[in-house]
Amino acid sequence: MKKLFAVALIAAFASNAALAGAECKAQPKDKWQKEADFKKKLTAEGYQIKKFKVSGNCYEIYGKNKDGKKVEIYFDPVSGAPVKTDIED
């Protein structure tokens, strides 16, 4: 019974780690790119944005890239650099 509990506990922590978001450096909001401008930039690069949100200190999008693959991407809101990217295979 203890062994089964330990396995279930490990599985729960592993699944939570897989769902963890990205860590963006905390920066003053007045230095962040404006959301509307950032969305326009991404659209010009070929992204189709289905959902855009602020996640902690990051901008996060759900949508499709220029190849039509589903993406979830976290961006540094100041530099615009991707911090974490998940692309459908």
TrEMBL record:
Keyword Signal in record: yes
Record's signal peptide: 1-20
Ranges where the PepSY domain occurs: 5-85
Keyword entries, A-Z: Signal
Protein name: PepSY domain-containing protein
Organism, as annotated: Vogesella aquatica
